[in-house]
Amino acid sequence: MSPAGGRGLAGQAEQLLEAAREQGRTIAVAESLTGGMVCSTLVGVPGASAVLLGGVVAYATRVKAQVLGVDAELLARTGPVDGEVALQMARGVARVLGADLGLATTGVAGPGPADGHEAGTVHVAVVTPWGGAERALRLDGDRAQVRLGSAEAVVGLALEMLRSPRIR
Q1: Mean per-residue pLDDT, 58-72
Q2: Are strands 131-138 and 121-128 parallel, antiparallel or unpaired?
Q3: What positions does the domain CinA C-terminal occupy (predicted)?
């Protein structure tokens, strides 16, 4: 999942922050299974404070509803491992922190199944002022690999959305 050049998550983070800075956009992150990895990686890039507003680690399902505003009925119906939940997390963190872009991760890192889903079942989402996108992933590997793959996927999706043609 690493971009060309083999720079991995750190390289993607640099590219995302630069693209956001060039466009005058701000970023907020809502994380479940990645537990702060995305935000921490972004913070590790010098100058991140120009665009990164912050993050919410919403590991518990109730935090997704209470802090990020994810629909409690949706959570009761689907559980936290769901594409619409990821989109609502992304919308919620953008709203709560006042950011242009909201990034979100939710899923099962493992080692075993949770919430009726196998380890490696992940949803990532990004919302922007011009739209949102969600991706369902099935990642292989151990817990650390699933978490890293999830972080790479959401940062990559955010970068794609910033680079895509759109109405501004």
Answers
A1: 97
A2: antiparallel
A3: 13-160
CA–CA separation, 55 and 40 (whole Å)? 9
Instruction: Extract the tokens encoding 38.
Output: 């995305």
pLDDT per position as a tens digit, 74-108: 999 999 999 999 999 999 999 999 999 999 999 99
Domain boundaries, given as residue ranges, for the chain? 11-163
- Second CATH level (architecture) for the domain 11-163: Alpha-Beta Complex (3.90)
Closest CA to 41 of 25, 18, 17: 17
pLDDT in tens, 5-36: 447 999 999 999 999 999 999 999 999 999 99
- 31 pairs with which residues across the strands? 57, 105
> Residue 80: is the preceding peptide bond cis (ω within 30°)?
no
Long-range contacts at 75-82 (CB < 8 A, ≥ 24 apart): 79/115, 79/116, 79/117, 80/32, 80/106, 80/115, 81/106, 81/107, 81/108, 81/114, 81/115, 81/116, 81/117, 81/121, 81/122, 81/123, 82/106, 82/123
| Alpha-carbon span 10 to 110, nearest angstrom | 23
